Amino acid sequence: MNRTTLSLFAGTAALAAVTAFAAVDSPSASGAAPEAAARQPVERTSLVCPAPSTSDLAETTYTSFTPVTKGAASGGRARLQAAGEKDAKAGKDKKAGQPVLTPKAPGTPATGDTSGGDTPALVGTADGSFAPGWTVQETTEVAAGTGRGLLGVNCAGADTDFWFPGASTAAGRTDYVHLTNPDDSAAVADIELYGKDGAIKAPLGENLTIEPGASEAFLLPTLTEERQTDLTVHVSVRGGRVGAAVQALDDKAGGDWLAPATDPAGSLVLPGIPKDATDVRLTVFAPGDDDADLKIRLASPDGLITPAGNETVHVKSGMTTTVGLGDVTRGEPGSLVLTPTDQAVPVVAALQVVRGKGDKRETAFIPATAAVGARATSAGNTAKGTTLALTAPEGAAAVKVTASAGSEGGTPATKTYTIKSGTTQDVDAPVPAGLKGTYALTVEPVSGGPVYASRTLTTAGTPAFTVQTLPSDHGLVSVPRTREDLSILQK
């Protein structure tokens, strides 16, 4: 190939690059506003599921579901693989288990079960038609012992920054930070702890290396000598990415997974406090340099109300603040809404919720969450043990809820609900006709203001329960509209 031909190819490539750049980033010659970005289905999704339990009495169910998405790529598959956990004490690799389920076609859930305390963390990927909105629910029932009850968590994507208000190193609590590295290179992370007086010395939480494809669980009391009832945990990743979750187990009040709170913001919504909650505790942390002053309001079925004696909360910078709200819902479903009294200061927050009394208590957590957005998906629902809570704190909204086919049979069903401004409703969610097995719920706002949602699972005859929030399932991504614009070559 001669130099002239090479120059021609180089010029053509440069022209293509310039044309693409002009189409995306340059305003039109006429000065018209650029077209809005198109929403397209994602083509690949990755998820991480933490190791469910170390109890020999643990019974764990995984449920995988991908909603049918218009315009999604054809073909593809979803797969879950065991992470190569390393036993730090023995210095040996644990035996990696086989995937517990085989995802079916989009629109139909797939389930799998494991038992005992040796189930490893799972790393999953989905592509093609399985990718948009792929959701995996991990639900574990522990019959007795520390953390007994129902524990649930949505398997989530890897990231580099996580906040967990509501953790503890107090006597009677056994809290683990689970970090899973889904990538082919090592990740390095720090676990920082903040209590009522500020940062807590935890040198053993610094510079933690998570090997490629590995998962590690770090017991909080081994990272610091301080024992505090209420902590905020910050996981900061220096290199690589990890999936992160906190498993909070109580000797007497059960336990659950504490999922990451949404990013720090001036206003927050914590949706779906069960109507029969007997005790609710709010934990708030201000990670910046400024103190925060927040209004506390409850979005009830009748509108926004202020809890008596807990109208506001002052949160000092860098310090964890906890507010005991008692049985704030008074027999009705509710959601907590935090807004600034004056200047907006970013905060993170979560609720610890207790059902039952005495020896029959059970605990779950509700972190502040992002709005549903275009669509949210919840897997692992049962006909009689599922409660869907919807709240519209800023304005009335219409919401479409679709129940998928069952994992073993059943016909999808859809209902549309109107949520009044400032209210929370436990809606009578649709159930597939002829349901066999479990099913998924897909929540799609149709009109109105932003909607926040959570799903509560309960077991019959006991107060055991778990709550998962429903932020966007990230099934769609904004893709800038492009067009050819050769006029840039004349400039």
Describe this structure in words.
By secondary structure, the chain is mainly β. The protein contains 1 helix and 39 strands. The two termini are 32 Å apart. The N terminus is likely disordered.
Please state the structural category: mainly beta
Gross morphology is: globular
Mean pLDDT: 89
List low-pLDDT spans.
1-33, 85-96
What's the total helix number? 1
Short structural summary:
The chain has one helix and 39 strands. The chain is mainly beta. The radius of gyration is 24 Å and the shape is globular.
Element layout with pairings:
Layout: H1 3-25, E1 38-41, E2 44-49, E3 58-65, E4 78-82, E5 86-87, E6 92-93, E7 110-115, E8 122-127, E9 135-142, E10 149-154, E11 161-167, E12 173-180, E13 187-195, E14 198-200, E15 208-210, E16 215-219, E17 231-239, E18 243-250, E19 255-258, E20 268-273, E21 277-285, E22 292-300, E23 303-305, E24 312-315, E25 320-326, E26 334-340, E27 348-355, E28 362-367, E29 376-381, E30 386-392, E31 397-403, E32 409-411, E33 413-419, E34 423-427, E35 433-436, E36 439-448, E37 452-458, E38 465-469, E39 476-479
Antiparallel strand pairs: 1-39, 2-8, 3-7, 3-9, 4-8, 5-6, 9-10, 11-17, 12-16, 12-18, 13-14, 13-15, 13-17, 18-19, 20-26, 21-25, 21-27, 22-23, 22-24, 22-26, 27-28, 29-36, 30-34, 30-37, 31-33, 31-36, 32-35, 37-38
